[in-house]
């Protein structure tokens, strides 16, 4: 069934994205060592990883990047624990829509075994697949170090990492940066795009048909206008309407979605000094060019803004996937952010 909130874990519940799914599966069959699944929030990264995780027959582990506090120690320890147990292990949760956990720590420690024993155990375990969801939530440079260390020393370990904060995932992978720890190593990158309008319509129609629930074309169009082609919001709407049978399902969905988006902004603002500037940009971004955005922000501040400072702020919003750049214009990556900025 399409309209379930949990991350999808079976191919029959997973709509579209055959190409992306195939790319990940083939890369794993080739035993590629680093496979990165990237896409803005709510496009379905956790579901894709979960599906592949379920279908993986070799030894495997799942790490929720939001709860790893010390990647250098914890990732290695988690791999070792799994090798020792000889069966799959999930550290943290496999969860949709970023609903919880902003970093509480995994707290796995290595025992008293020597480094040599540990390495021997890992090497003797055959192909090990390490799934890391929301990888960018760990320290990016620490994670890059761990990946490069394991890449070089354990050829039979594959990492499948996902991230919504695209700039930060790129920081982990170090594209084009000769000084980066992963420079020169093979990385398979799989980008998940949002659905276009036709596919979003197809998804909603098929989902409601599964529930034998009839919804008029006009409302479906309104839903897509409001929620865009983001799997997460479309699913939430289908659930609200077809499973919970709420009145005003679209209103409730966009309210709930805006609150989730707002909580991510609040999290982002904790590490940000100039909150007013970021909010000004987010309020004005709507297919807007750089100069025009700066001039809007200047009005909000009552003075012209330093271009470097402004570019820096816009770049951070893009790197955290709140804002996207297409053809020299900036857009909100998620239409619900326009509501979320009034909730923070
Ligand atoms: N291909 C798909 N087919 C059907 N439902 C999907 C698909 N992808 C995602 N969903 C649904 O959309 C919601 C969000 O999916 P998921 O958690 O996988 O996205 P995400 O990109 O990891 O989101 P976040 O950025 O919040 O972590 C879930 O309810 C999930 O069941
Ligand atoms: Mg996710």
Describe this structure in words.
- With 344 residues, this protein is α/β, with parallel strands linked by helices.
- It has a domain of 175 residues: 3-Layer(aba) Sandwich (Rossmann fold).
- It is 49% helix and 11% strand.
- The chain contains 14 helices and eight strands.
- It has a six-stranded parallel β-sheet, sandwiched between helices.
- Helix 5 packs across helix 6 and helix 9 runs antiparallel to helix 10.
- The chain starts with 17 loop residues before the first helix and ends with a helix.
- The relative contact order is 0.13.
- The mean pLDDT is 93.
- The structure holds adenosine-5'-triphosphate and magnesium ion (MG).
Output the number of helix runs.
Answer: 14
Kindly provide the name of the CATH class of the domain at 17-191: Alpha Beta
The distinct bound ligands, ions and cofactors come out as: adenosine-5'-triphosphate, magnesium ion
Q: How would you name the CATH homologous superfamily of the domain at 17-191?
A: P-loop containing nucleotide triphosphate hydrolases
Question: Helices and strands, in N-to-C order?
Answer: HEHEHEHEHEHEHHHHHHHEEH
Q: Biggest sheet: strands side by side, in what order?
A: 3-2-4-5-1-6
Percent strand: 5-15%
CATH architecture of the domain at 17-191: 3-Layer(aba) Sandwich
Cα separation of the termini:
34 Å
Strand-pairing-aware structural class: alpha/beta
pLDDT < 50 runs, ≥5 residues: none
Predict the CATH topology of the domain at 17-191: Rossmann fold
Rg calc: 21 Å
Instruction: State the share of residues found in helices, binned by percent.
Output: 40-55%
Main beta sheet strand tally, sense and closure: 6 strands, parallel
Q: What's the overall average pLDDT, rounded?
A: 93
User: What is the global morphology?
Assistant: globular
DSSP, total strands: 8
């Amino acid at each position: 069934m399409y309209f379930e909130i949990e991350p999808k874990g079976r191919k029959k519940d997973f709509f579209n994205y055959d190409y992306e799914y195939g790319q990940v599966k083939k890369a794993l069959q080739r035993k590629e060592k680093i496979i990165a699944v990237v896409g803005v929030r709510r496009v379905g990264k956790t579901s894709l990883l979960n599906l592949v995780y379920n279908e993986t027959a070799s030894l495997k582990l799942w790490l929720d990047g939001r709860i790893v506090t010390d990647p250098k120690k914890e990732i290695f320890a988690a791999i070792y624990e799994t090798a020792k147990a000889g069966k799959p292990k999930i550290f943290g949760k496999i969860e949709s829509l970023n609903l919880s956990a902003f970093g509480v720590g995994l707290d796995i420690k290595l025992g008293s075994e020597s480094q040599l024993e540990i390495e021997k155990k890992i090497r003797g375990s055959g192909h090990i697949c390490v799934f890391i969801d929301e990888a960018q939530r760990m320290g990016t440079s620490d994670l890059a170090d761990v990946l490069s260390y394991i890449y070089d020393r354990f050829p039979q370990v594959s990492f499948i990492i996902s991230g919504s904060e695209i700039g930060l995932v790129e920081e982990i992978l170090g594209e084009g940066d000769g000084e980066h720890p992963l420079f020169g190593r093979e990385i398979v990158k799989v980008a998940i795009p949002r659905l276009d309008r036709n596919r979003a319509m197809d998804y909603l129609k098929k989902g409601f048909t599964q529930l034998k629930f009839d919804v008029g074309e006009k409302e479906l169009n309104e839903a897509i206008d409001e929620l865009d082609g983001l799997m997460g919001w479309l699913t939430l709407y289908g659930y609200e309407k077809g499973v919970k049978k709420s009145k005003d399902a679209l209103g409730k969905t966009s309210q709930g979605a805006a609150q989730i988006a707002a909580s991510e902004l609040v999290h982002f603002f904790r590490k940000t000094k100039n909150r007013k500037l970021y909010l000004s940009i987010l309020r004005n971004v709507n297919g807007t060019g750089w100069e025009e955005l700066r001039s809007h922000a200047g009005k909000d501040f009552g003075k012209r803004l330093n271009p470097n400072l402004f570019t820096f702020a816009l770049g951070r919003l893009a790197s955290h996937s709140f804002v996207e750049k297409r053809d020299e214009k900036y857009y909100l990556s998620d239409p619900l952010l326009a509501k979320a900025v009034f909730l923070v």
